[in-house]
Specification:
5-stranded antiparallel sheet, 3 domains, Beta-Lactamase, Helix Hairpins, alpha+beta
Length: about 450
């Protein structure tokens, strides 16, 4: 059952129940009022008649047409249960009790003859005056009233169903648009946003859906760029590696000219270098793809320990570079492995651009605004002003860096790690020469 059908049915049931309850309450109220009015009229007529009828002879002298015109029946009952007059009435114990003086009056319904019967004491002692009236008129009125209530209730239910259908169509139109959009996305893969109308809950749902589409489109675009850039970067080392391997394989054929030992050593060295470059590139791509995944890691991390581990690895990779370290205590919640990789990338970049026997300065210090900075300063040539806005983009390599080993992904990984931890990373030129990388992360001083 669709939501529209459920809304329509719910509206019809609610309104139908309300109309039924109101109709029943109205019917029984009118019914009680009509019977009360009939009883009052009978008692008033009985009081009027007993003041004028002193004996059964007087009652017998009144023409029957007189009572027929008034739509009543009149009789007298003595205390012995004998009919003094009006023998066509069925007298009961209630009327007999009135005749004996045991009750001041009585009212009852004779269901056999469909009469409402009232009795009051008559003029002669020990006698009761009985007045009866047909209930057919009252029942006809009640039947008509019940028919009216039934028709009105049915019309109300139909109107409620129509109104529920209209409300469901209008209210669920944004949901229908969302459904059509999801079906279109599943069919075509086009992540186009949906038009938003109004400011109610469904409009906010549409806005959230559009935000999800935007995030999904951005993720797809990042994935597409990563695949395209990775394919472009992998093509060069793979081509060179294949060329060198084919050259080595061709030199082993009997009819091919042989390579000298020196040439073979150089080709083997190139192959090893290309394999190392390819391994580094693949590792960086895997790391970057992992950083793209929506991971949330919240574990206590002592940032000085992370920096020290990264320094140890960087020192093994660049034995000719001296690292001058100044670390202040600082802790945060995050991913220790990712932070270590980010700091290591900064250190590797500084070591790569520093001259032999140079000093790279590493400082960790609070900023006083709820964050701390990890500053890595080298004494290399520095980054050109034209390259500063792009160095944290994936696969970006300046013209000077294309001749050096690297994949162009290290600083992009740093930027993503910083963003994951709510921080930032910036690059600038030092006035004294070289590059200053600043990684700023939130946290608190550790005790």
């Amino acid at each position: 059952m669709s939501v529209r059908t459920r809304v329509t049915g719910l509206a019809a049931v609610c309104v139908g129940t309300t109309v039924a309850l109101v109709s029943l309450a109205g019917f029984f109220t009118v019914r009680s009022s009509l019977y009360d009015q009939l009883d009052t009229t009978l008692l008033q007529r009985a009081d009027s008649l007993r003041s004028t009828l002193a004996s059964a002879a007087q009652l017998g002298g009144i023409p029957e047409g007189f009572f027929s015109a008034a739509d009543i029946r009149v009789g007298l009952l003595d205390g012995n249960g004998q009919y003094a007059a009006g023998g066509d009435l069925a007298m009961g114990p209630d009327e007999l009790a009135v005749a004996r003086g045991e009750r001041p009056q009585s009212l009852r319904t004779d269901r056999v003859r469909d009469l409402r019967v009232a009795a009051v004491p008559a003029g002669p002692p020990g006698t009761a005056l009985v007045v009866a009236q047909k209930l057919s008129g009252t029942r006809t009125t009640l039947d008509r009233l019940g028919l009216v209530f039934t028709l009105v209730g049915g019309a109300g239910v139909l109107l409620a169903a129509a109104a529920g259908t209209a409300v469901a169509q209008a209210g669920l139109r944004p949901v229908q648009r969302l459904t059509e959009a999801t079906e279109r996305i599943a069919r075509t893969g086009e992540l186009q946003p949906i038009a938003i109308s109004g400011d109610d809950e469904l409009a906010r749902l549409t806005a959230s859906f559009n935000s999800m589409l935007s995030a999904l489109a951005e993720s797809q675009e990042r994935q597409r760029r990563l695949v395209a850039d990775a394919g472009h970067e992998l093509r060069t080392p793979l081509t060179s590696l294949r060329t060198n391997l084919e050259l080595l394989a061709a030199s082993d054929r009997p009819d091919a000219p042989s390579l000298s030992d020196q040439d073979r050593k150089e080709i083997s060295a190139d192959v090893r270098a290309q394999v190392e470059e390819l391994s580094t590139l693949v590792g960086d791509i895997v790391e970057l793809a992992r950083e793209d995944a929506p991971q949330v890691v919240h574990e206590p991390v002592e940032l000085p320990e992370v920096v020290e581990r990264a320094l140890a690895r960087a020192a093994r990779r660049a034995p000719g570079v001296h690292f001058e370290v100044h670390l202040a205590p600082w802790s945060l919640l995050g991913d220790a492995n990712a932070l270590e990789r980010a700091v290591l990338n900064l250190l590797d970049n500084a070591a790569k651009w520093s001259p032999a026997a140079a000093t790279v300065t590493v400082a960790l210090a609070p900023t006083g605004r709820g964050t701390a900075t990890v500053e890595v300063a080298d004494t290399g040539p520095g980054i050109a002003e034209a390259d500063l806005p792009y160095i944290f983009e994936r696969f970006y390599r300046s013209s000077d860096a294309r001749t050096l080993p690297g994949s162009g992904l290290g600083l992009a990984i740093v930027a993503q790690v910083a963003a994951r931890h709510g921080g930032t990373v910036q690059a600038s030129r030092r006035p004294s020469g070289g590059t200053l990388m600043t990684l700023e992360l939130p946290g608190r001083p550790s005790t």
